[in-house]
Amino acid sequence: MFRILVSRTFQKQFGDLPENMQKRIRNGLNELERDPFNSRSGADIKSLKDTDPPKHRMRIGEYRLIYHVDDLTVMLIEIFIRGRGHRE
Hints:
The chain has 88 residues and is of the alpha+beta class. The chain has a single domain (3-81), classed as RelE-like (YaeB-like fold, 2-Layer Sandwich), CATH 3.30.2310. Helix content is 27%, strand content 35%. The chain contains two helices and five strands, in the order E-H-H-E-E-E-E. The chain has helices at residues 8-15, 19-34, and strands at 3-6, 44-47, 55-60, 63-70, 73-81. Strands 1-5-4-3-2 form a five-stranded mixed sheet.
């Protein structure tokens, strides 16, 4: 199992989301704890190209979670609505 840590940016963005979306994201985080690298039912995961450290994104409905993995720790960087793109 992987350990999940969240950035302050993620905490603020998550807190601003509607309650029902927060619940969906919590369910997605359970999937990240199991395997943050491979896409599967309930976890649409892709690697982001040309990022250092290597980052991944997980799609949950119209939202995108950006994170990186270090050993057995998943660091959630930010969450945003689809179409906004990600920051480096």
